[in-house]
């Protein structure tokens, strides 16, 4: 894939704000007359929204944007336009043409390395600058508003920061060149996009929702990384998983059933697209030790058969989370059980990705500590 590039970034519109402490108190005082905010409405969303986070987020898979394609993607309360030049460079830009505001995702066309606006035909080069005007005109001094982006691990990742700051941490490229025939999945969900990473720290649910037994979990915080190690049994088989969360948008999972010689690398992406709406994407890349000894054509065939089955199995296991993520609320003061201190660690770690004023995580951290200590 082409070398990633960076662009000037602008603050997206429509950022949510967390409820203030004053709001919380007010809600308690008036709850006699109004339903509690945690009660689900049949006519609209009543769960408290959560701010969009800072960090790297996938806006689409790479294979969804072929050379010459122009796509509109929702991201953090607004639309972005993603396009790929004929030579294969992917670009992520704000949608509106700097000339007279045409939406470049509605009728914009790739012409070689340029993007051409549908309204008056201005052409913009890969660095965003206007390089050509229609006949008889001189190109204006105008530039598309680009986003910091990287294309890696099969996805187009866009950086977001609430104060317009450039990226101060990166996601590594995974070498999965030995993996054949990876499978991809995508689900549109409601609720809280950080459920994906929080889920990696939720030991109790691995047994109750996913059917693992003899579960144990440990974690390590390393700046923007949260590394979770899980050991368990799956239908009697030993199971190991090492989940490395890079911020709240990307999780690399190295999962193994060592006695069967099966290993699956999963790349999972959580992307906030609108208030209380998010997209969960993932790819799974199995490898089976015994296949390595087989001749290449047979190996290829084996993965062609195995991978769709492995994909279905993963969906059947992970899919147990989807309806719960979709419908759950976010409690500022959850009542934790013994052994659930990992939630405290998750909220403390994840607070670094939110604007300081969003506040409820710091408050919740205190309550979480007290609850877990009981
Ligand atoms: S609005 Fe894009 S060229 Fe005029
Ligand atoms: Fe889960």
Describe the structure.
This protein is of the alpha+beta class. Among the domains are: 55-160, 3-layer Sandwich (Rieske Iron-sulfur Protein); 183-328, Naphthalene 1,2-dioxygenase Alpha Subunit, Chain A, domain 1 (Alpha-Beta Complex). The protein is 20% helix and 31% strand. It has 7 helices and 17 strands. The chain has helices spanning 21-29, 195-200, 203-208, 296-318, 322-327, 341-350, 360-372, and strands at residues 55-61, 70-75, 78-84, 90-93, 109-111, 114-116, 123-124, 130-132, 149-152, 155-160, 183-190, 213-222, 225-234, 237-246, 250-257, 262-274, 277-288. The strands form 4 sheets. Strands 11-17-16-15-14-13-12 form a 7-stranded antiparallel sheet. A 4-stranded antiparallel sheet has the order 5-6-7-8, with no helix packed on it. Strands 1-10-9 form a 3-stranded antiparallel sheet, with no helix packed on it. Strand 13 and strand 14 form a beta hairpin. The longest helix has 23 residues, at 296-318. It is globular and about 75 Å long. The protein starts with 20 loop residues before the first helix and ends with a helix. Residues 1-36 and 359-374 have low confidence and may be disordered. FE2/S2 (inorganic) cluster is lined by residues 97, 99-102, 117, 119-120, 122.
* Strand line-up across the major sheet: 11-17-16-15-14-13-12
Distance, first to last CA: 51 Å
> What's the CATH first level of the domain at 183-328?
Alpha Beta
Which structural class fits the helix and strand makeup? alpha+beta
Radius of gyration from the alpha-carbon trace, in angstroms: 23 Å
Strand segment tally: 17
CATH superfamily of the domain at 183-328: Naphthalene 1,2-dioxygenase Alpha Subunit, Chain A, domain 1
Helix content: 10-25%
Silhouette: globular
- Low-confidence parts lasting 5 or more residues at pLDDT below 50? 1-36, 359-374
Question: What CATH architecture of the domain at 183-328 would you give?
Answer: Alpha-Beta Complex
What is the N-to-C order of secondary-structure elements (H for helix, E for strand)? HEEEEEEEEEEEHHEEEEEEHHHH
